[in-house]
């Protein structure tokens, strides 16, 4: 059995990579992927924590796993919207560089 | 109907009918904004007040038929304000109390009010304004009737205060009814502001009374509960602050004086009487209804209603009596030299109200209420008669341009003469009996200096006869002094004006027999218990110990009052009928005293100098220019706006770079900071 510390370490590493990607990369597709990475880091943590808890009267507890399913659903929706915005942006600007969309400012 | 249709629930109809009419007019004027035909306005307004009068009669009837003889009808409509529990509980209900005192007031208000509403139909029809102004007038008049009925029917001080403020508001609205003339608007504001001083006293009295009752564990604002629990605080004293001389005052004296300040403002007594003469700027029916018959007697009503309080507050009662006596003579003296027909009547009203306070202060509460009712009849008669004269002369109010009117307006002349004879105390008319009762009460009272009070009252009745007959002679007799083109068009107004005057004249003559003093019942008419009004009122009014007078003394007192009246009449006859040139020569010879009278002892000027100007100056220089413009507008409101704007343009706008990743960075930094703070 994998100890919980390892799971958390993996989750933290994934999350940090995701944050770094969002902050550093300029390509909107990569940023979307990094966001996906952060969501899945959370999923890993949820699965890991779910395993820490014993079942009740023999039946395993599924709370964490249910959460994961919901996060996946949300992530799918988010990608759908995000990719839509991305395509719209590409049609208008011929580019997916996030630094080029900075009209909304002082 | 909350309680079902019991005999009490007719009480709520009395104030609510005029309110409904006023609300209808308000909706039509404010929301629908389409002109209502005058006939509809008249039907609704007059109908509501007449119906209210009928309801009052029904209520009065069931009061005197009341089986258990408790002399009370209470209609509790709903619980209005309630808070707290136990000894700190406060509750004020919308509840109406009909006892003999409030039933007399209600009948006077709705009865005289109905007549004046009918009179107003003709009087305001003459006013060349649109239907909207006509409807606005009746809206205010109905609203006034409602407020006044709330005032007298309220069974607790809080509800009474609602009516108290309501009548003040309506008075303001109606004095300034012709507001396009700036002077009228000024007079309305003056009445309102002077009344506010009195209202402040009323509120202080109410707070002090309630908190004192809380201290003894019996909080109440209902009159009956206050009366029941008052014995608990009659001995209490109040420490007086050092700058007022220190020592201790009787708590009930302080409370009673606070309420009396309210009464002084509303009933135009010294030193707050200045608003009433200027209130004559309003239409004449308003002067008759509000500033003679009903609203100005609210102060007297308050003192009589709180009689149980004044009865145990001897110092406050003495102040009431002296204020009344001094006001009576002071206003009568001013009335002598006034040349505006309505101003004379206004000062006469102030003087007569002084009489009522004199009676109330001396413990003669029945005499005070008696005079309230008889004064309502004869002063409404005089004001409406003056209105008829003013209409006949096409809005001429100056006595110097009248004279000789009796040929052209014979019916007005007769009813006006009845009014003058009544107020002057002609034997057998209602004013004679009620004034006699007051003078007897002053003579028989045990307060210090009561003989002086009686003397002042007697002198005032002589002065009253003098200035009233002067007014009558100058208006109706002698040569006409009107300009030629007006003289040709003097017409007596129509039936709607004259008939209410007949009804009022009837009551001015015969109402006195409802409260016929026992001495005349015994000596002249041979009936026992002749003073049915006093017997009716007695259970609800406080009783103050006084000397018993035998019939011989009372007859002598009446003879003295008649003599004073005759002397006043004689002087008026001599000066204004036999030697009409004499008053002018005297005025020329005694220029300084005459000017003093004409300018009303310069009281308005003195108040202007002492209070109004400093107040306006402080308001303008300090409160407006420094506090409002500089501090509030400049520093507080404008300063904050400027600060936000400055930080935004100079500093914060650089945070809005437009780069999404910068925003994300700050967001993550913030999240990290929060986590760090939470885990620290």
Quick structural summary:
Chain A is an all-alpha fold. In chain A, 73% of the residues lie in helices and 0% in strands.
N- to C-terminal separation of chain B? 66 Å
Portion of residues in beta strands of chain A equals under 5%
Name the helicity range of chain B.
over 70%
Shape of chain B: globular
Q: Radius of gyration of chain A, Cα only, in angstroms?
A: 18 Å
Q: Provide the CATH architecture of chain A.
A: Orthogonal Bundle
Q: Any chance you could write out the topology, listing elements then pairs?
A:
The complex is a heterodimer of chains A (106) and B (680).
Chain A: H1 4-24, H2 28-52, H3 63-93
Helix pairs in contact in A: 1-2, 2-3
Chain B: H1 10-32, H2 38-64, E1 73-83, E2 90-98, H3 100-125, H4 131-153, H5 157-175, H6 182-215, H7 223-229, E3 237-239, E4 248-250, H8 251-266, H9 275-278, H10 284-293, H11 298-305, H12 307-311, H13 314-336, H14 341-361, H15 365-392, H16 410-424, H17 430-444, H18 450-476, H19 484-487, H20 495-510, H21 518-525, H22 532-537, H23 551-578, H24 582-589, H25 591-598, H26 603-650, H27 660-679
Antiparallel strand pairs in B: 1-2, 3-4
Structure notes:
- The complex is a heterodimer of chains A (106) and B (680).
- Chain A has 106 residues and is an all-alpha fold.
- Chain A has one domain: Helix Hairpins, CATH 1.10.287.
- Chain A has helices at 4-24, 28-52, 63-93.
- In chain A, 73% of the residues lie in helices and 0% in strands.
- The longest helix of chain A is centred in the C-terminal third of the chain and has 31 residues, at 63-93.
- In chain A, α1 runs antiparallel to α2.
- Chain B is mainly alpha-helical.
- Chain B has 27 helices and four strands.
- Chain B has helices at residues 10-32, 38-64, 100-125, 131-153, 157-175, 182-215, 223-229, 251-266, 275-278, 284-293, 298-305, 307-311, 314-336, 341-361, 365-392, 410-424, 430-444, 450-476, 484-487, 495-510, 518-525, 532-537, 551-578, 582-589, 591-598, 603-650, 660-679, and strands spanning 73-83, 90-98, 237-239, 248-250.
- In chain B, the strands form two sheets. In chain B, strands 1-2 form a two-stranded antiparallel sheet.
- In chain B, α1 (10-32) runs antiparallel to α2 (38-64), α3 (100-125) packs antiparallel against α4 (131-153) and α8 packs parallel to α13.
- The chains are: A mainly alpha (106), B mainly alpha (680).
- The interface between A and B is small, with 12 and 11 residues.
């Amino acid at each position: 059995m994998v100890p919980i510390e390892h799971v958390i370490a993996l989750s933290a590493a994934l999350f940090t990579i995701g944050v770094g990607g969002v902050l550093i990369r300029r390509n909107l597709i990569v940023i979307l992927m990094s966001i996906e990475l952060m969501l899945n880091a959370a999923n890993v943590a949820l699965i890991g924590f779910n395993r820490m808890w014993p079942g009740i009267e023999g039946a395993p507890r599924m709370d964490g796993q249910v959460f994961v399913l919901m996060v996946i659903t949300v992530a799918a929706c988010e990608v759908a919207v995000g990719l839509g915005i991305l395509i719209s942006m590409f049609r208008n600007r011929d580019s997916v560089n996030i630094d080029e969309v900075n009209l909304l400012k002082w | 109907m909350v309680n079902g249709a019991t005999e009490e629930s007719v009480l709520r109809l009395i104030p609510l009918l005029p309110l409904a009419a006023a609300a209808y007019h308000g909706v039509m004027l404010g929301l629908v904004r389409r002109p209502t035909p005058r006939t509809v306005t008249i039907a609704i307004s007059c109908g509501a007040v007449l119906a209210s009068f009928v309801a009052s009669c029904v209520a009065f009837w069931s009061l005197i038929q009341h089986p258990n003889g408790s002399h009370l009808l209470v209609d509790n409509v709903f619980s209005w304000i309630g808070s707290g529990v136990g000894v700190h509980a406060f509750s004020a209900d919308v509840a109406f109390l009909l006892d003999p005192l409030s039933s007399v007031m209600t009948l006077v208000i709705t009865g005289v009010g109905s007549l004046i509403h009918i009179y107003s139909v003709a009087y305001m029809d003459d006013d060349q304004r649109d239907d909207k102004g006509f409807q606005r007038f009746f809206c205010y008049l109905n609203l006034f009737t409602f407020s006044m009925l709330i005032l007298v029917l309220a069974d607790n001080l809080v509800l009474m205060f609602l009516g108290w403020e309501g009548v003040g508001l309506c008075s303001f609205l109606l004095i300034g009814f012709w507001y396009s003339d700036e002077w009228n608007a000024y007079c309305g504001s003056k009445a309102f502001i002077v009344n506010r001083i009195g209202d402040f006293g009323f509120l202080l009295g109410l707070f002090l009374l309630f908190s004192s009752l809380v201290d003894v564990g019996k909080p109440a604002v209902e009159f009956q509960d206050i009366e029941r629990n008052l014995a608990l605080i009659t001995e209490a004293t109040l420490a007086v602050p050092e700058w007022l001389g220190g020592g201790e005052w009787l708590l009930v004296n302080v409370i009673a004086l606070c309420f009396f300040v309210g009464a002084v403002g509303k009933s135009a007594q010294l030193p707050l009487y200045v608003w009433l003469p200027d209130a004559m700027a309003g239409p004449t029916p308003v002067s008759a209804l509000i500033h003679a018959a009903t609203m100005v007697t609210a102060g007297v009503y308050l003192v009589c209603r709180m009689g149980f309080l004044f009865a145990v507050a001897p110092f406050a009662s003495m102040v009431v009596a002296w204020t009344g006596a001094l006001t009576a003579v002071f206003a009568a003296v001013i009335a002598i030299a006034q040349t505006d027909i309505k101003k004379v009547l206004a000062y006469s009203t102030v003087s007569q109200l002084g009489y009522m306070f004199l009676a109330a202060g001396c413990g003669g509460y029945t005499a005070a209420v008696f005079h309230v009712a008889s004064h309502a009849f004869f002063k409404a008669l005089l004001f409406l008669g003056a209105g008829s004269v003013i209409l006949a002369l096409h809005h001429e109010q100056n006595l110097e341009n009248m004279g000789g009117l009796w040929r052209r307006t014979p019916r007005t002349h007769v009813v006006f003469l009845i009014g003058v004879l009544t107020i002057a105390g002609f034997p057998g008319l209602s004013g004679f009996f009620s004034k006699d009762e007051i003078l007897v009460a002053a003579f028989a009272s045990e307060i210090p200096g009561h003989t002086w009070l009686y003397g002042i009252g007697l002198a005032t009745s002589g002065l009253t006869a003098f200035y009233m007959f002067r007014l009558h002679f100058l208006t109706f007799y002698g040569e006409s002094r009107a300009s030629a083109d007006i003289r040709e068009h003097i017409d007596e107004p129509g039936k709607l004006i004259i008939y209410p005057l007949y009804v009022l004249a009837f009551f001015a003559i015969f109402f006195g027999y409802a409260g016929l003093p026992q001495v005349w019942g015994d000596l002249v008419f041979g009936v026992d218990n002749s003073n049915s009004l006093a017997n009716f009122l007695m259970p609800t009014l406080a009783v103050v110990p006084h000397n018993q007078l035998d019939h011989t003394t009372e007859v002598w007192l009446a003879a003295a009052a008649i003599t004073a009246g005759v002397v006043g009449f004689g002087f008026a006859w001599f000066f204004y009928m036999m030697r009409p040139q004499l008053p002018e020569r005297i005025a020329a010879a005694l220029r300084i005293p005459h000017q003093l009278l004409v300018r009303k002892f310069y009281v308005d000027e003195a108040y202007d100098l002492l209070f109004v100007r400093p107040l306006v100056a402080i308001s303008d220089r300090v409160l407006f220019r420094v506090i409002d413009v500089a501090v509030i507008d400049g520093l507080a409101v404008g300063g904050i706006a400027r600060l936000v704007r400055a930080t935004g343009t100079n500093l914060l706008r650089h945070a809005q770079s437009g780069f999404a990743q910068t925003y994300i960075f700050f967001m993550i930094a913030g999240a990290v900071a929060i986590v760090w703070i939470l885990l620290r």
